[in-house]
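pls ignore typos typing on phone
zinc ion + seq
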Amino acid sequence: MRNKRLMGVLLSCLMVSIPMAGCASEIESILGESWGVPGGLALACLRDDAYRELVIEIDHAPGYNPESSTVSLLKERLGQVCDKPDGIRIELNEMNFAETTTWTANTVREVAHETMDAPPQTSVLRWHVIMPEGKYSDDSVLGVAVDASTIALFSDSIDDATSIFNPRISAEDIENSVMVHEFGHLLGLVNLVYTSPADHEDSEHPGHSNNEDSVMYWAVETVTISAWFSGDLPTVFDQDDLDDLAGMKSGELTTTDQLWRP
Ligand SMILES: [Zn+2]
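k done
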């Protein structure tokens, strides 16, 4: 009975690729764990009250390490919005993952939770990225944020997302944008754990921006990414994103589903 119910929830999650905020919270309540929903540690990152340092653990399969440009861009973007006086530290580990072909939201959770070096909330805030071999069950998906602290990036799909029709956009460019995009979901963008006063959520792609100049634009995490941009890919949070984050941080915007609150 329990397994059947869980399978039902998982199947319904797979039908909506991202965000899986609602799905994740249902699964947590069934499994009795509290890994939260994407955006559930947004305040813990934005504010410095409890966590003065942020550690990003990136575990990658051999040969699947992130580009150095991705690491430095991520650090820069998070540094612009998260108040971390003791700094943002990136830890890279090479790892052989149990799964190498097809990933689901649930396998990302299971494997990532097992391989994480320390829990998300200790004396520091720890967010975790896995970069494994293989693809997501919906192979149009380049990256997923599956709970309050866990992201997967699928480099095999990112390679597939480059297009001969748009040679200006490289796999490195795509990885840069997808990485920042998924962290945007951990920060609660767009409207995952709050409601923006600005009308910038794409009505057809919940949880995403309707502005193609925002890294939260809905097409950023899809394999057809190269078809949607004639120029460079977005790598920045736009003004509406930044205003939302500032509103959450100050308390002007009401936030839900937080695993930590001031
Ligand atoms: Zn997304």
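The pocket of zinc ion is lined by residues 18, 181, 185, 208, 221 (CB under 6 Å). Residues 171-186 form the longest helix (16 residues). more later
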